[in-house]
Amino acid sequence: MMSEQQKGIIFAATSYLLWGILPFYWRLIGGIGAYEILAHRIIWSFVFMVILIVALGKTTALKVQTLQLLTNKKAAISLFVAGVVIAFNWGLFIWAVANHHVLQASLGYYINPLMSILLGMIFMKERFSRVEWTAIILAALGVLYMALSIGEIPYISLLLAVSFALYGLIKKNVKMDAMFTILLECLATLPFALAGIWYLKAVGMSSFGYNKDSGILLFSGILTAIPLILFTAGARRIPLSLIGFLQYIAPTLMFIQGVFLYNEAFSMTHLITFACIWLGLIIYSCAKYQQYRTQRRLSA
């Protein structure tokens, strides 16, 4: 039987694999603006979660946990803030992909684990061995080198990194079923999404209708909700620092798409950054594996 930590690693890793292929999906929707895509993403994610919860017979549990949440003001506010933060992250990412900044988005999600590690140290009191610190420093140097080589502050990258790291921290402290938190997060921003769609329709700027792009966009709810469910389930079972390094899966897939699929520039700067980050990841993974073997040996 798998331990809770092993389940957490599988859940989190799968969520990052799915997130890693999202640039390809968003690039398929070329005829709809970034804000309209974001609004529909929120709406269809909410619809999908309602259907899923009803199909699984979890409506009673949803009512019970929602009532419990409403009695805890801090948790309710945290969930609302999580909904706003993740909506901002979605919107910025969609805009970046649509405007040929896939490598900037990739850099953002390379920086993101470092932000998660920092938050883990500050708020969760997580500590690291010398080997783990070596891995963290290598990854940080790689990201810093790329940032300095660009010649300007990479605002897109930093905003993506900070917003998703904050989202991960907030979700780790909300004790509620993963599916329910996704539904309520979407509900928190649903009025803004509906208002935005209404406005775009009213001024004749909406592109959603009977066309291929709109048909593809209908699947955004599924492709949004499933990785978030997996991420939430994983985040509760493993340390925030380990989540941070698993997150390198997604930006690596984005990086590959940006260079080989969308022909964005691949320079020596990218090569050095990539090498530093993956060397750090290998060192950290080896240290964690050794630690896991030692714990199992002591348990036996």
TrEMBL record:
Main subcellular location of this protein, as a coarse class: membrane
SUPFAM superfamilies (UniProt xref): Multidrug resistance efflux transporter EmrE
Highest taxon of source: Bacteria
UniProt cross-references to Pfam families, sorted A to Z: EamA
Keywords: Cell membrane, Membrane, Transmembrane, Transmembrane helix, Transport
InterPro entries: EamA_dom, EmrE-like, RarD
Keyword Transmembrane helix: yes
Membrane topology: Multi-pass membrane protein
Keyword Translocase: no
Locations listed in the record: Cell membrane
Domain EamA: 7-146
Transmembrane segments: 9-26, 38-56, 76-95, 107-124, 131-147, 153-170, 182-200, 215-235, 242-262, 268-287
Database matches in NCBIfam families: rarD
Family as reported in the entry's similarity comment: Belongs to the EamA transporter family.
Entry protein name: EamA family transporter RarD
Organism name: Macrococcus equipercicus
Organism phylogeny: Bacteria, Bacillati, Bacillota, Bacilli, Bacillales
Gene: rarD
